[in-house]
Amino acid sequence: MNEQVPDNDLQQLILNLETENKKLEKELHKTREIALRSDKLKSAFLANMSHAIRTPMNAIIGFSELIGMDSVKSITKLEYSRIINEKGQQLLSLIDDLIEISRIESGKLELSYTPINLDEFMNEIFSSILQKKLKAGKDQVDLIVEKNSQEGFGQIQSDPGRIQQILNNILVFSIRNTSKGSIKFGYTIKDPKTIEFYVVDSGIGLNKDDQKIIFDYFWQFEDITHQHIADNDLALTIAKNLVELLGGKISLNSELNKGNEFFFTLPIEKPEKAGEILLAEIVFQTETGRLEPNWKNKVILVVEDDEVNYQFIEALLEKTQVQLLHAENGNQALELCKTINKIDLILMDIKLPERNGYQITREIKSFRNEIPIIAQTAFQVNEVRKKCLDAGCEDVISKPVEIELILQIINKHLS
Questions:
Q1: Which pTM does this prediction carry?
Q2: What is the tens place of the pLDDT at every residue in 79-88?
Q3: For 400, which DSSP code?
């Protein structure tokens, strides 16, 4: 004989099922909202990225066509050339930022902890940012560095490259948005374990809505036709991510038409589980005036599979009177090194057909170790420098190359 469920128990069971259904519906609704929001953010990111890429490309393509017109005066062509270079640098910066964001998001960005002498470090940043301020034509803006050393805190343990990148990104934002007044930056020791860096400007400031999205601009700003933040890119997003990666926090105080105050705190000591790479960045400072070397009796072998890139090197070095040899792949480079006794220097592309530049460098060094080899790479220099040096290269140059820089590096090794 089947037992009947008491009415009270049956009602309670039905009530429990209804409660579970409501919870499930609520979770499904929440999941759907998250999915829709994610789609909107992806669309916003792609729209913003398309806009950010197409804007400089419009100038690059447009002015390139104008330069080819016979009716355009020579002095005007020089100005068009300057604009093309400026917009090309802007596009390259955006690409570098995208790569940086990708590395941060994927957890592949490594940190290099070393002692930092705070006063020397701040002086270096001041010199670098001063050049950017002058180049931006912001003569009416005073740049001020404030140092606040306390006894026992002459140096800290952190990643100097990343801190410089954070400060640089914030300071460039301030330069863009400040027409007069001042930009101050510096640091204070908050406690024995914490340092606080700051950037204070007298710029246009930000309204409350813009303050909410300033560090996540490309992800949160969905309507690109109503932009409030002039020329903002991924720089502040990268700054925020790097601060958090170093174990710190970033904040902003701002008032419209009264300026911005950026603050970020960092631990003074190296975290026990911090990742570390033993890789030193080499920084070259260009001298005033363009280098005009004469390498009339020198021979340079250019190992480059891209014909346009070789034509650029050829045009770049034409006035130096150097003799150029061209190898389109590693096998041709090896053959030339075996048959031609006088080769004074090799410019080695890393990405080559069949065998890469690392392999070819090792082979050449096995029988012509006296020839200095300078690697040229479109990969990020920080990632490949150690591999290039381990393969036997004497130096590494990043593509697109800076004309003054490549001339200085070549001159150093030919001398």
A1: 0.59
A2: 989 888 888 8
A3: S
